[in-house]
Amino acid sequence: MSAHPLAAPLLAGSRRALARAITLSESTRADHETQAQQLLSEVAPHAGQSIRVGLTGVPGVGKSTFIEALGVHLADAGHRVAVLAVDPSSARTGGSIMGDKTRMPRLTVHPNAYIRPSPAGGNLGGVARRTREAITLCEAAGHDVVLVETVGVGQSETQVAAMTDLFVLLTLPNAGDELQGIKRGIMELADVCVVNKADSDPKAAVRAQTELRAALRLLTPHDAPWRPRALRASALTGEGVPEVWAAVLDYVGEVDVAARRRAQTAQWFDELLREAAWRIFREGLDGNNLRTLRAEVEAGQLTAIQGVAALTAG
Ligand code: GDP
């Protein structure tokens, strides 16, 4: 098979080729999907060299501002930064919580940066798949830092944690109130917590940091390979932002990232396999039979186990 025409410019670092490649991978047209898979398998051997950072926090915590500050800091230092967004609201509504407002104006025009908004449409599983593919494409195009932003309101955090090397949680100085708003599950995913907007109320920020530290200590098992850190920063003034990156580098130095990625890949394979197995199984099913059985289970005439057995018994 001849090489996909986007492969060479993509590998040479063309931003335009990268944008087109991601668009291709987001397309649901069957011929595009085939092309995208061809391209991905061609460039995948050149991917994998970036630090993949997931980043979340409730709307308004300052994610855009923080990513802009961190991104510009890194891009100025010569890193090639890619920013991807996962926003399940765009999957549901076609619109997006992150919105179309001009986010990250300085990073957007930085020659070392590439920013891609969340793909609209499709279910969360589809968004996760396309984000994984976008990470691969960004890496193949030479990006050595990939920041994956998520809106911090639910399921997408788990998905993003399953495709990144570490997870950064942004919080606010009024942590007492805020900790209740953050789902415990999200705290458990965090490798680095940052009290943002420390400039707005420095004393409260110190208190919040102390509380976060205590909460993280409680959540972290004694034998964990990494003790999650709590830091303070101001995305607005830039103070504390380099320290957050230093913590990311410490993490990458201390934790076996390659092992984490291997486990993530295996888990992803299992997930795709489950999906494919279900699709194949379902295609072979008599839809009326399935509906009747489900109705019987719902009505209590059959137990769920009996219903499944009736469908799967050879
Ligand atoms: P997002 O919804 O999490 O992406 O939050 P934004 O980045 O859009 O920020 C929400 C608001 O908080 C904006 O008005 C920002 O200017 C402001 N903001 C963000 N970071 C800081 C900060 O460190 N200090 C202060 N004082 N304001 C901030």
UniProtKB/TrEMBL annotation:
<dbReference type="InterPro" id="IPR027417">
    <property type="entry name" value="P-loop_NTPase"/>
</dbReference>
<dbReference type="GO" id="GO:0016301">
    <property type="term" value="F:kinase activity"/>
</dbReference>
<comment type="similarity">
    <text>Belongs to the SIMIBI class G3E GTPase family. ArgK/MeaB subfamily.</text>
</comment>
<protein>
    <submittedName>
        <fullName>LAO/AO transport system kinase</fullName>
        <ecNumber>2.7.-.-</ecNumber>
    </submittedName>
</protein>
<dbReference type="Pfam" id="PF03308">
    <property type="entry name" value="MeaB"/>
</dbReference>
<keyword id="KW-0418">Kinase</keyword>
<feature type="domain" description="AAA+ ATPase">
    <location>
        <begin position="49"/>
        <end position="216"/>
    </location>
</feature>
<keyword id="KW-0808">Transferase</keyword>
<dbReference type="InterPro" id="IPR003593">
    <property type="entry name" value="AAA+_ATPase"/>
</dbReference>
<dbReference type="InterPro" id="IPR005129">
    <property type="entry name" value="GTPase_ArgK"/>
</dbReference>
